[in-house]
Write a structure and sequence with these properties.
With 246 residues, the chain is α/β, with parallel strands linked by helices. The protein has helices at residues 47-58, 78-87, 93-108, 124-135, 188-201, 227-245, and strands at 5-13, 19-27, 33-39, 61-66, 113-122, 140-144, 175-180, 205-210. The protein is built from 6 helices and 8 strands; from the N terminus they run βββαβααβαββαβα. Strands 1-2-4-3-5-6-7-8 form an 8-stranded mixed sheet, with helices on both faces.
Length: 246
């Protein structure tokens, strides 16, 4: 097998027909390949998120990460762009859905695409991945410790959003959730509330709660990193995508 990937910055059409920056990584083979939209965390469109995007290409998926802060801080350092977005309370839900829809359309337009698209998000992106599962034509979604699907942010929290658990009735694809027992947002109680709602609605989902892990346990360059949870989590994510994206 030809073992090579291409990773590059591209421009895509997002919400409201805005042209936004994105990072595209794909195998250099004929395919067909499944497709993954990576939704970055609140710290932004950074090196770590691009590494995750390349990881999916290495695993045999076309992957793209839209820069959700393109409008607030075009061309800015990721930390500066994230600071601007935090000051505004995060990305509006409607705009997020439009940007991810544009990213998904870009992936489906590749000649090597099999047409199936999954989303994955971390931190604020986890909440947004759940949002896409309820609003877009996708085949799989992964929520990595997404806060405020249930519950509301405390006063002073940089992410100022409303809970979206009421959208669960519209969830149209399988959902994989990865959480840490020591996390506060979402707490185990928040996860249990979401689990109960999805069970009541008869939705297809799979949740994993890791002991001795808190928020951001996938982040290899942060103190929150937990190797055992992250390694197992990656195995479960790839198995989930293999089943649902091909």
């Amino acid at each position: 097998m030809y073992d090579a990937i291409l990773a590059e910055t591209v421009t895509i059409t997002g919400h409201g027909d805005d042209r936004i920056e994105a990072y595209l990584a794909r195998p250099m083979g004929p395919g067909p390949y499944g497709n993954v939209v990576v939704i970055h965390h609140m710290p932004g469109y950074d090196r770590a998120t691009k590494e995750i995007t390349r990881r999916f290409a290495e695993e045999g998926y076309n992957a793209i990460c839209p820069n959700l802060y393109s409008r607030e801080a075009p061309g800015a350092d990721p930390d500066d762009a994230a600071a601007t977005a935090r000051a505004q309370g995060g990305v509006p839900d409607e705009r997020l859905v439009g940007d991810v829809a544009g990213a998904a359309a870009t992936l489906r337009g590749l000649t090597s695409s099999n047409g199936k698209v999954g989303t994955i998000g971390y931190c604020s992106g986890g909440r947004q991945a759940f949002l896409t599962a309820c609003t877009l034509d996708i085949q799989a979604a992964v929520d990595c410790y997404g806060a405020f699907v249930v519950g509301t942010p405390p006063e002073g929290h940089p992410l100022q959003v409303q809970p979206i658990v009421h959208l669960a009735k519209d969830m149209r694809c399988p959902l994989l959730g990865m959480f840490g027992e020591e996390d506060k947002y979402p707490s185990p109680e928040h996860v249990a509330e979401l689990e109960a709602e999805l069970t009541k609605l008869g939705k297809e989902f799979e949740f994993h709660m890791y002991p001795d892990a808190g928020h951001a346990f996938f982040s290899v360059d942060r103190p929150a990193y937990r190797q055992a949870a992250a390694v197992d989590g990656w195995q479960k994510i790839l198995a989930f995508y293999a089943k649902n994206l091909g």
